[in-house]
Amino acid sequence: MSAALIIDIILWGSVAAVGFVAFRRGPTVLKVSLREGTMDFINIVPRIALGVIGSGYIAAVIPQEIITGWLGPDSGWLGVLTATIAGAATPGGPVIGFSIGAVAMKAGGGPPQVIAYVIAWALFAFQRLLLWEIPFMPARFVWFRAAVSLPFPFLAAAIAMAIGKP
Amino acid sequence: MSELPLKDPAPADDVAEGEPRPGHIRKPVGWSMIVIAVLVAVSAALVWRRDGINGVTEILTHDLSLFGGILPRVLAGCLLGAFIAEVLPHEKVSRSLGPKSGLKGLLIGAAFGAILPGGPFTAYPVASALLAVGADFGATIAMVVSWTLIGYGRAIAWELPIMGTEFTLWRIVISLPLPVLAGALGRFVYVRLYPKGAPE
Q: Global pTM?
């Protein structure tokens, strides 16, 4: 069984479980929340469509080699800084993000720098902020969260340097 | 849609719960959508100039199939968010995840983010629902950061196969303290930015 299928099962299982709790509160609660969820879905679909269908073009014009080049070989704190910027600038989904990390690792990038890259990408890759987070969340929250996340790729790199892993 | 009643959806049942449903945060098409649209248009034009019309349609078909695959999950995420907003008792949420929930609130938020199933299509609707029912920025930041750094979904599906087991496990170990720290930093900054509570 593929990981994606397992995740889908857990996801829809959770929907069914919470939906059942809503139903136990009364059919009206279920009906109201079903309608709210459907309306959210209808409102969000055009934005997701623009994001997902458009992201291929953004990824195509930012060549991966440029970002891999930024990660470079082991380069201390300057390398951590460029890795963090590269993580934020990486377009596309998890395949691209992790593949660049793996390539940088093989090309001699230092583990703390690659850790900083992966964590920066996970925390505030600009494309995910714009395409996924902004449509669902209040914009004020998204920018605030991204701003307070800024120190953490550096902290993670510092921890990686201190413990000498991975 | 036609089978839905046309009357106002704030029925007596809700009031009987003693908690009026909070309004969902719906933003009109704002500047961020315009930025994305411009970015996409410019990128598509560059692809067209570089690879011709074939390059444009190739990416379009690939992304369309990706979009079709994601749609059901987006629906699942929206339903999950709506159910959670409806089912969670607001007083309890604001007590355990609100501005005065302390370290415990950040830990609960982080734990919730770590076990949440699905991808961005679940995490963000649910986080938005938490904000709507009384969680503060700090606890919600802990949740989102925990989902993104410790959540198992992306790690199992993508990071393990591409980055390898050793890197992934150490990366997660190093990430363990970050959600609570991010949430704490969020609270620390928030009360100084908005000493009189949230604007609006």
A: 0.81
